[in-house]
Write a structure and sequence with these properties.
The chain has 617 residues and is an alpha+beta fold. It contains 22 helices and 20 strands. The longest helix is centred in the N-terminal third of the chain and has 21 residues.
């Protein structure tokens, strides 16, 4: 089974493209891995989430596949927002489902919203507005998040913005597959986290206002320093009795929070827009910000030593600093089924560092630099839209203090919510990395005009980066500008003559100019340089078929299919080639496979109907 392979071999390759570097988490819905994309130059990092259906019955798998594809389309759409991780790819392999997402570096809000440490009111308002501004976009897409909570809110390191992660809807793939007759619109399966989940969601009927309830609870948690599950209720109305923990709260904010967490969903704000408008009426946007602590990369690099002798630590290098994967709230992740709550016991968890988690950020930093040997967690979080679970280390001091450490004065802290620390300017290398990720994401989402502008900025910053010129070439192909695309690919090949991706793209640009015979040479060269390059094999086979060289086309396409059996284009073109050779039954089988992978493939459907008609069935 692939599941066992990935547990035993963290360097496995899935989708013939994504090399798994290390496991970030495991839960009832699957596993999450830090990975590298082997098809892109420099093999950029990404996050791979593996989801497993609960049964291998064909009918149930078909339902799981349909749900998975539907939810993936939603995640692609949501990824257009800057504060939601982009979905790069989704695929099925060995009856298991995979999501590939943007890697986001940051800190979960569980590191800032600490039990027993209430926030000032203006900081709570700023937090609520930050969350709701992202939810406005989510609700406009007709999507309910269903699992808003502090551990699913990341403070992105490069710009300090909140990023909303872990969209619970994709968990339907695992849950729903066990019973394909269940209607998700009226289901007894509820996805969420105890304390943040309202009554109607518990009953399997989430609404937009269910997200508002969760946001309100996060705000109350920050304002009071009390966990949602520890709040009392009014015995008669079932409304939350939270004000006793914050007697000094203003009437205006209290009224908004009360409405956000009403027991009856009909009494809440219906969507994020209305809740955001109410908050803006008591606190205009220009006056708000968040209090944050800041430690520079150089500070960390000069003062922190990692002790890796006793525990395996997953590390990432960013600039000169090293960061470790650390847990979110170990008690957060729950699945509620038919009104009964069960913790996801398969998650790898650690005992929380109470001495740290109960103190404000400034005190944590101060103590970490004053006491050698104290445990401290640094964080780089890879986000998977479908239920990321991070793992932690326990019992082993992760950091020791260098005796020649930078003094405590190097650590800065802003005590006033009206005086935010500006984000540290990115180094040229960091800015280049940011532009690479941004441009690639825009191109993969077919936002070609934006991608072209990003690649142009990147080339201005890094004119000798072959990857940037290749990305520009691919983008121009998407814009149907083959002449300019060929120039960009030529630039990439000057910098790297053995750049298989650039050769492949050069061939595609030539095909757009109806120069398929010339293009074929580029595809042949690309596959010779990179024998596992699936897309190049598909283009090679497709081009051979254009010239009626069907036997050669089938050989090339069989190579592509051996590398990736989920290439609808390879199966469809193979069907056409088999048809040309008079092997009609095999042609129909290949076309059926193409349509199974991509039901909307009009060319394959038309050819299959023609084939069946000629064969008399």
């Amino acid at each position: 089974m692939t599941h066992q392979l990935q547990q035993d071999s963290p360097t496995a390759v899935v989708g013939k493209r994504y090399k798994l570097i290390s496991q970030l988490g495991v839960g009832g819905f699957g596993q999450t891995f830090l990975a590298q994309d082997l098809h892109l130059p420099d093999c950029p990092r990404c996050v791979v989430k593996r989801l497993v259906a609960k049964t291998n019955e064909p009918k149930n798998l078909q339902t799981a596949r349909r749900l998975f594809n539907t939810e993936a389309r939603v995640l692609y759409q949501l990824g257009n927002h800057d504060q939601i991780p982009a979905l790069f790819a989704h695929f099925e392999e060995n009856q298991e489902f995979y999501l590939v997402q943007e890697f986001v570096e940051g800190e979960p809000m569980t590191r800032q919203i600490i039990k027993g440490e209430p926030w000032p009111e203006d900081r709570v308002i700023a937090l609520l507005k930050d969350i709701l501004e992202v939810l406005v976009f989510v609700h406009e897409q007709n999507v309910i998040h269903r699992d808003v909570k502090p551990s699913n809110l990341m403070r992105r390191r490069r710009d300090g913005k909140l990023v909303l992660i872990d969209f619970g809807a994709v968990k339907r793939v695992s849950v729903q597959a066990a019973d394909p007759n269940t209607d998700m619109a009226d289901s007894t399966v509820s996805i969420g986290t105890q304390g943040y989940i309202p009554n109607e969601q518990l009953a399997g009927k989430p609404r937009f206002s269910s997200d508002i309830y969760a946001v309100g609870l996060a705000g109350i948690q920050a304002l009071t320093g009390v966990l949602p599950r520890e709040l009392g209720e009014d015995a008669q109305t079932s409304e939350l009795d939270w004000r006793v923990h914050s007697p000094g709260v203003s009437d205006e904010l209290a009224a908004i929070l009360d409405r956000m967490v009403c027991y009856d969903f009909r009494d809440r704000y219906p969507t994020a827009v209305e809740a955001l408008e109410s908050l803006r009426s008591i606190a205009p946007d220009a006056t708000e910000t968040e209090t944050r602590a800041s430690v520079t990369d150089d500070d960390l690099a000069s003062t922190v030593l990692l002790d890796t002798a006793q525990q395996p630590i997953v590390t990432l290098k960013q600039s000169s600093a090293t960061y470790d994967f650390a847990p979110t709230d170990p008690k957060d992740e729950t699945l509620t089924l038919s009104g009964h709550t069960a913790s996801d016991s398969s998650l790898q968890k650690a005992e929380p560092a109470e001495a740290l988690s109960q103190r404000p950020v400034s005190q944590q930093l101060s103590k970490a630099f004053q006491k050698p040997g104290i445990q401290r967690w640094a964080l780089v979080t890879g986000v998977a839209a479908a239920g990321l679970a991070l793992f932690s280390l326990k019992g082993n001091p992760l950091l020791r203090i260098n005796q020649s450490a930078t003094p405590l004065s190097a650590i800065t802290y802003s005590p006033s919510p009206l005086s935010p620390l500006p984000p540290k300017p990115l180094s040229p290398e960091q800015e280049a990395d940011r532009l690479v990720n941004q441009a690639n994401r825009q191109r993969q989402q077919r936002q070609y005009t934006k991608a072209l502008a990003s690649y142009d900025k990147l080339i201005k910053l890094k004119p000798k980066l072959a990857q940037a010129h290749w990305g520009r070439c691919e983008t121009l192909i998407g814009l149907k500008r083959p002449d300019q695309a060929m120039v960009a690919c030529d630039d990439a090949l000057v910098l790297n003559p053995n750049y298989a991706e650039a050769l492949w793209s050069q061939g595609k640009a030539l095909k757009q100019q109806d120069r398929s015979l010339e293009a074929l040479k580029f595809f042949e060269e690309a596959t010779a340089l990179k024998p596992a390059f699936v897309d190049a094999w598909v283009e090679r086979g497709t081009t051979l078929q254009e010239f009626g060289r069907s036997s050669e086309a089938i050989d090339a396409l069989d190579t592509a299919i051996a590398l990736d059996r989920n290439s609808a284009e390879a199966w469809s073109t193979k069907g056409s080639a088999l048809w040309n050779l008079g092997r009609y039954d095999q042609a129909v089988s290949a076309l059926d496979k193409a349509l199974q992978i991509q039901p909307t493939a009009a060319g394959a459907r038309a050819l299959r109907q023609q084939a069946r008609k000629q064969l008399g069935y």
